[in-house]
Design a protein that fits this description.
139 residues; 3-stranded mixed sheet; globular
């Protein structure tokens, strides 16, 4: 897991794993490392209009396989991702259905591997939605 990863460091990790260094991938790495919070392929494509859609999805898939990013939520039909952070406890997200602001929700799974017999590399996902205070106050 990573924290405060720069685009150059991310590019090096991916290159070390055997992926070629390309301009589109560099743009995606920069977006991911400079973006705060959750992001989707659609967010990247909206910011970088010249990027090929397939390249964005394949790059995100590669980063997920390398355990650099992980799936955090599905919002409006879009898979949302998050950059792994080394010192952050496992958590989920709640996303405002109005403004799309997200916040972390703690999750204690420290004893989960003991409870699930016969499986390794156990992952789980929970998706919370709601209306944030700002949006609720505006109505």
């Amino acid at each position: 897991m990573y924290t405060s990863l720069t685009a150059t460091e991310l590019e090096q990790k991916v290159s070390d794993a055997g992926l070629k260094r390309t301009a589109p991938r560099r743009a995606i790495y920069t977006y991911i490392t400079q973006h705060e919070g959750l992001f989707s392929a659609a967010d990247i494509l909206a910011t970088h209009k010249k990027l090929d859609k397939v390249s964005v999805y394949r790059t995100l898939e590669s980063l997920e396989k390398l355990d650099i990013i992980h799936r955090a939520a599905v919002l409006d039909g879009h898979q949302m991702y998050e950059l792994h952070q080394e010192k952050k406890d496992h958590h989920h997200h709640i996303v405002c259905v109005t403004c799309k602001k997200d916040a972390c929700v703690p999750c204690d799974i420290s004893d989960l591997p003991k409870k699930i017999k016969g499986f390794t590399t156990v992952h789980h996902a929970v998706h919370f939605t709601g209306v944030c205070r700002d949006c609720a106050a505006a109505t």
